[in-house]
Amino acid sequence: MAQLEILVRTAVFKSANDLVGWLLQQAAERIDASYQPKPGEVHKSRETIRVQGIFGNFEVQRDYYYHAGKKQGHYPADAALGLEVGYTPALAKLLCLEGADETTYLKAERHLEQVGGIKVSARQIQRVVQRVGSGAQAWQERPAQPGLGDAPILYVSGDGTGVPMRPEELKGRRGKQADGSAKTRQVYLGCVFTQHHVDEKGHPVRDWESTTYISSFKPINEFGPSLRQEAIRRGMASAGEVVLLIDGAAGLENMGRQNFKDCVQIVDFYHALEHAGLVLSALVGKDNPDYKVGHHRWAKRLLKDQVQALIEETRRECAGKPQAQTVEKELGYFVRNSKRMQYGTFRAKGYFIGSGVVEAGCKTVIGGRCKQSGMFWSEPGAENILALRCIHSSRRLEDFWKDRLNAHAARNDALPLAA
Fold first, then answer.
1. Distance (Å, rounded) from C-alpha 135 to C-alpha 404?
2. pLDDT one-digit tens code per residue, 364-394
3. Are 391 and 100 in contact (CB under 8 A)?
């Protein structure tokens, strides 16, 4: 009978928007009729909200309750319907997707209007992104439910990059500017991916669409546990081997020791070559003809597990020379990471020896949205939009929005407050 009524009404509605508005009003009335106020809540009034959806605008009337002790209001229908500041869940999801994916909020506004005929201002898109993005960041950091996986090798990688910030976000922070001030704040990006195969040449092949990301402006000692939780979600406990790929920075080294104690740790080969260049620059000078030859020799010998031999030979070569102290300082990177630089052994086992996945993520996930020309962010502004971008890049939008709608609806549940 209810289906027949809908079919009859569809015939007389002037547009799909009128039908959607009528259906939402019917749903709101049923929700209000069945709602049981929580202890301390008082029904204050019945109020009207103008809701915007993909098909247009419509008005919905619903009950309003107020808790004087908590100084908090509540609309049961809004929670059950998953409304986000006057937008339907479908449109809110689209606003967040466009706002996080396009390079600016203004471009998102124009794209929505040109492609879908949806008129929402850039400022309103930003407000929805920030409202939802704070929940997205919390969702990234949620405790993990151990995942199951059959991957022979599971890789974990992390890196940091600077995001340009507003002056008030940088007060008291030391940076790399000539006067010691900072122009950016560091955000960490972590990724997890899997490998099942190698190619015909024995080179590792990353599993298709296996990479997931998390981001955080929190310090490394808080980011590390979050990255570990992501690895647990991805099936770290059941993986054949776990490999941590890092760039050799002291902070990431400590993170690996504290959060991925028993895994194989590899320092990115590209960064190793960069530091080999620093050693040779200190030893013979970058303009010396021997520099290029020496750099090529370091690359070949690093791939043969000869890092320790290179350290000893370089020390003998610079012994008693004025540059010995500078060379020893640059060699410290190799001394500290020698166990993580057994590239011949790692290659023989079919491991990746480069952190290109997370490096690329820093450019696309973070740089593609937060490091455009003329951009200066607040920390919450950048953190929230990056959380949405990580969830999108990890192909988890549906899971996130389902969890968010369930959380909204749970606000109407009286059982947790029965006691």
1. 8
2. 999 999 999 999 999 999 999 999 999 999 9
3. no
